């Protein structure tokens, strides 16, 4: 079989050269399309279900949230394992799928099952899917350089402006905010005054919620003109909250300010984010989607940040805290250099030992063609250009030329035997 294949190749050298050229061109195209990353993605094929129920203990979260979700998600097809974790106010369920399952197909199946499991959870508790990213998807971190601005204001800029803008970048699964204070109106109620006016805390909460809302009315016609009536009730400042009536005493309205005080504050924090011991900062973490090109995503994020910078308040600038591009470029360039060095060394060794440039050329030309063709397989199996894959190619360079050297030496041996002992009819 091998001898027949060699005979066909020798008789159709032009076709073989055209096939090699076509394979090389396809490999070059695959190199340009292959995702580039420094770290190989060895994380499991998983979908995360996150549920928040603040103020509840881990035991209650386990009994009323995590256990019902895990029990009902066990029937999802192609699930290999399910892991649950409960903590104060939060529940995490990790569904590990088979490696050959498409992640977006898996997320759809989980979402279908969550619609059924929703009825088993406490009222107003809604489970959500985590971002479609991997454990190594945190490709870019940034902070704000705005020492003169309040941390609450910085967090508001991050949550309501920068985050939404960066989430529109192709390949970005999520932009997670960290640091600062999430601003909120805080009502500090005096329990003695509640008892004096015979008003419960629930009454105060319900009245505040009901008064922080816009309501619609009907159409009012006058002088051939139609006016749409609506009530504007959204809270705009602290004074609006203070003047909300929560009850009455002898016909006199009891307002929130009669029961306590209203102040601006920050939500409960479980930690702080300090940068190099220089103080607290606010920023975000860019999470990349499954199978995306990390180098391309980071480049697009930086371009978007340049546009977002124009809309930031004066004195607020972006500061890069972590950029995987530097690691990607350093690691890939290092492996590329080693590839080139090995190709040169192997080529020189082949020329020195064979002492015949045409034979050496036929062997050396295998190296770039084989390396280019290997990227076709990398794309086919969804493997990115990273430290491990490129190092594997570098280690295989010596094996690539082995076959050519053996075939050339074998051809030399047969020619030598034929010249020293020619057949009788010659």
Write a short abstract of this structure.
The chain is an alpha+beta fold. 49% of the residues lie in helices and 23% in strands. The longest helix has 31 residues, at 324-354.
CATH architectural designation of the largest domain: Up-down Bundle
Based on helices, strands and strand pairing, what is the structural class?
Answer: alpha+beta
Tell the overall outline: elongated
Radius of gyration using CA atoms only: 34 Å
As a percent range, the share of helical residues equals 40-55%
Spatial order of the strands forming the largest sheet: 2-3-1-4
Percent range for β-strand residues:
15-25%
Strand element count: 14
CATH class of the largest domain: Mainly Alpha
Order of helices and strands: HHEHEEHEEHEEHHEEHEEHEEHEHHHHH
What is the CATH topology of the largest domain?
Multidrug efflux transporter AcrB transmembrane fold
Number of helices: 15
Distance between the termini: 29 Å
């Amino acid at each position: 079989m091998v001898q027949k294949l060699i005979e066909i190749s020798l008789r159709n050298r032009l076709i073989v050269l055209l096939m090699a050229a076509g394979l090389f061109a396809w490999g070059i195209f695959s190199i340009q399309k292959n995702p580039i990353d420094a770290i190989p993605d060895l994380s499991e094929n998983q979908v995360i279900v996150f549920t928040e129920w603040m103020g509840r203990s881990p035991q209650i979260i386990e009994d009323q949230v995590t256990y019902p979700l895990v029990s009902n998600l066990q029937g999802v097809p192609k699930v290999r394992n399910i892991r649950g974790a409960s903590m104060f106010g939060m529940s995490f369920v990790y569904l590990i799928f088979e490696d050959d399952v498409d992640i977006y197909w898996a997320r759809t199946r989980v979402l279908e099952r969550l619609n059924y499991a929703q009825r088993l959870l406490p009222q107003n508790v809604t489970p959500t899917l985590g971002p479609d990213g991997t454990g190594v998807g945190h490709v870019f971190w940034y902070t704000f350089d705005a020492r003169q601005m309040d941390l609450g204001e910085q967090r508001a800029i991050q949550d309501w402006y920068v985050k939404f803008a960066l989430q529109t970048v192709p390949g970005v699964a999520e932009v997670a905010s960290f640091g600062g204070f999430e601003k909120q109106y805080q009502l500090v109620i005096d329990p003695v005054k509640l008892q004096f006016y015979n008003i419960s805390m629930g009454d105060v909460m319900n009245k505040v919620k009901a008064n922080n809302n816009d309501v619609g009315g009907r159409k009012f016609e006058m002088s051939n003109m139609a006016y749409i009536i609506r009530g504007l009730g959204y809270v705009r400042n602290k004074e609006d909250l203070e003047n909300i009536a929560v009850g009455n005493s002898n016909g006199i309205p009891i307002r929130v300010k009669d029961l306590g005080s209203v102040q601006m504050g920050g939500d409960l924090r479980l930690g702080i984010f300090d940068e190099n011991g220089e103080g607290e900062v606010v920023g975000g973490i860019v999470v990349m989607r499954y199978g995306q090109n990390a180098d391309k995503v980071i480049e697009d994020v930086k371009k978007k940040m340049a546009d977002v910078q124009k809309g930031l308040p004066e004195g607020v600038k972006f500061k890069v805290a972590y950029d995987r591009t530097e690691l990607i470029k350093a690691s890939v360039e290092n492996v590329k250099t080693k590839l080139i060095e090995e190709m040169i060394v192997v080529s020189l060794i082949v020329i020195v030992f064979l002492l015949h440039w045409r034979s050496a050329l036929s062997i050396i030309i295998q190296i770039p063609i084989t390396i280019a063709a290997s990227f076709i397989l990398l794309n086919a199996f969804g493997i990115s250009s990273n430290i491990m894959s490129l190092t594997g190619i570098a280690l295989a360079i010596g094996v690539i030329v082995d076959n050519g050297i053996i075939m050339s030496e074998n051809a030399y041996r047969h020619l030598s035997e034929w010249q020293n002992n020619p057949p009788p009819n010659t």
